[in-house]
Target: MFS transporter, PAT family, beta-lactamase induction signal transducer AmpG
Amino acid sequence: MSVSRPPASPLLWVPTGYFTMALGYVMLTSVTAIMFKNLGMDNGRAAQYSSMLILAYTIKPLFAPFVEMYRTKKFFVLCAQVMIGLGFAGVGLAMALPGYMLFLMGIFFALSFVGATQDIASDGVYVTSLDSRAQSLYCGIQSLSWNIGPIVASGGMVYLSGLLHTRVFGHDAAVFGPDWIDAWRVIFFLVGGMTLLMALWHARVMPDGARAENTPTSVGEGGRILLDAFVTLFQKRGIWRMIAFAFLFRLSIGFLEKIGPFFMVDPVSKGGLGLSNELLGIIYGTYGLAAVLLGSLLGGLYVAKRGLKATLFVLCCAVNIPNATFLLMAVYQPADLYLIGAGVVVEKFFFGFGAVGFMIYLMQQLAPGKYSTTHYAFGTGVMGLCGLVTGVVSGYLQEWLGYVSYFVFVMVATIPSFVATWYAPFHHEEAPAGGGAPGKAVAA
Model:
């Protein structure tokens, strides 16, 4: 008689599951922008093409209910990870073909939907396999593991691409063009292999995940649930001001996200700082992301101590005002790596410190109600839409304005963030200090 194995410890699959999610997401939506830039694409198209890959993650609430209708959540996680691993390997192969860019964009666009499905299914495994106490216990590990993904992708892989380009393939780091194909093919083969290894690991240790109570049993029922979720969302008091907040809070960051790395690697003659990929990976993808993690930790403690309503505008200032560091660097174009690193760390630290207010606001003010998970996903989708829109136009604006004038524009773009934050409604009591579920509605 076969004996069923006890479930594996969450420590065996929570860290690797969320790391794998983040690795694919950052490779698709951030690292591709650097790759396009290296391959000789202008800032406008490089920012546009990589930003378009955010679309699937923005609209994933629309197809999330249907993922749970068939098989298990683990099945979808494994299928997604195998497809992502093979897809990245396919990117490496496609780059050897003439006219490869059309193939690349087709594969990337398909992988973005597969990646969004992986996110939905992985979150589902986490929520349905762990009770509320375990979810709270592993929440920090979950967040830390996800944030290791950007460090590996934006830091490690970008650094390695520069190292391969110059020291292995013997090309000039300052020249953008087809010579970069060799290095980036290796990177995509490597990331594809890592993702396939994670799929094999999760096949062994990840639980199946239970079906949620409101899982639809048919496409028609799923559509009705989605419709009801959107109807109830727009019936909430102050919903349009909440949506404005969700879209505008990180508006200036959306304009800065793609252009910041371009500014770092563009030559001094074009107004940039002339950094290599290796230095970009170290400064922007490692020290910068470490500063985000530290800022997020301290920002969370600050909100827990003072309360969100009392601190939200301060958090908005923290997100937006330090963007001025890029304006200063564009004006003076420092060559000192310590000054450049300090500028990036300051901006990233305060972004991490202030950005926690956005997520807490969505949890406590937008999400509460019958469809809290769907409404929270809608809020993060609106944030993603902001990143998509700003990313698509940012490169073209920068080319038109030049770096100094563009970073002045970024500072002007902070004004809508301040207005939306000032008028953001608070209709629910805040969660008690130390965490907890969103509070009850406050009487009008």
